[in-house]
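Following up on my earlier message about NDP. Here are the inputs again, as you asked, copied directly from the submission form:
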Amino acid sequence: MSAAAVLLMTARRSRALDTPPPAKKLGVALLGLGSYSTHELGPALRMTEHCRLTGVVTGSRAKGEKWAREYGFPEKNVFGYDTIGQIAGNPDIDFIYVVTPNGLHAEHCIAAAKTGKHIICEKPMANSVADCDAIIAACRQAGVRLTVGYRLHYEPHHAELARLAREKVFGPFMRMDGGNGFEMGPGATAKNTWRLNKELAGGGPLMDMGVYVVQAVCMAKVEAPPVAVTAKFDPVTRPEVFSEVEESVRWTMEYADGAKAACHATYAESVSRFRAEADGGWAQLEDPAFYYDEPMLTTSRGKVHLPKVNHQVAQLDGMALELLSGRPSIAPGEMGRRDMAIVEAIYAAAKSGKRVEVRA
Ligand code: NDP
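Thanks, got it. Here's what our run produced:
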């Protein structure tokens, strides 16, 4: 070996000794390898700094093994829904991320919590407040952290809206207006599309798209739940598609300080917007306010320029850093439960035609 090579090796070794080892990347196992896992969360986990994909839970062993090859984790970390318990004690996995249809979140989160791993549950947290309570209780009993996949809390434009609200930059937001939805494609039915199936989805666009509007209103009110809601279902225009769940719903959220939010969730048209007004100014998330693109935030002072981030990378790294630093999460299970209490009140108001108090 030449002297130069020896010098280079020594320099490398001493640099390796001087430099602290890179912080541990936390291991995430995705539970449910459908569209959101395949197109967003999996790819995001290739880009995250503080966590990486180290396992999957799936109904298809062949699909899981393909993921193991593509993402470079061992095939022993492919689990089935009936073998979730085997994840206990697996040193590669820190988080289990539940990404199955809404109606299965409670069953899957509870089974996952029993392994002693931390839980991320996709939105909406479950089909009912009772199921949210069961998930929270299971996570408490297991001593694990529970967060909800509320990616927008980690997105700079939405975080800026939250700051404007928190710091009352324009005064408290008093008048809010938001909508979110897309047009459900032709041929979709309750039998072939779980989002239209009451048992698996828990409801229609309110459970899916409406939760974003509920979240935005709560953000603009510094995470306070409303005191009451009123609501009305829009007429169903395609009964063959919407046989089990609503096609569109409109609702109003009322606050103790007199603030009101007019909201809309729909599977009949493409919409994604939110505006909040205070006596001293306003803030508006331009359409598309809630999609994966960079949202545009405009206020009465002009356009707000903030960095563009990949929402899922920001959320996953944000949640990993919260855990590594021991900080409480900004999207905890209790927030998912609060939103479900609001959603249940909206459904009760739409069905009864009455104003319903929210017990969040
Ligand atoms: P998909 O239908 O595309 O995937 C769901 C996956 O769950 C399936 O591929 C399957 O995975 C698994 N699964 C287990 N049991 C069932 C069952 N009985 N019926 C259907 N699927 C089952 O749904 P998405 O990925 O679009 O949505 C999953 C969750 O993620 C939902 O709660 C949704 O609200 C949420 N979501 C959140 C988004 C966000 O921006 N935060 C965006 C999109 C969705 P496998 O084959 O591996 O068993």
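One observation from looking it over: Residues 32-37, 58-60, 63, 99-102, 104, 122-123, 149, 151, 194, 208 surround NDP (CB under 6 Å). Hope that helps, and feel free to reply on this thread.
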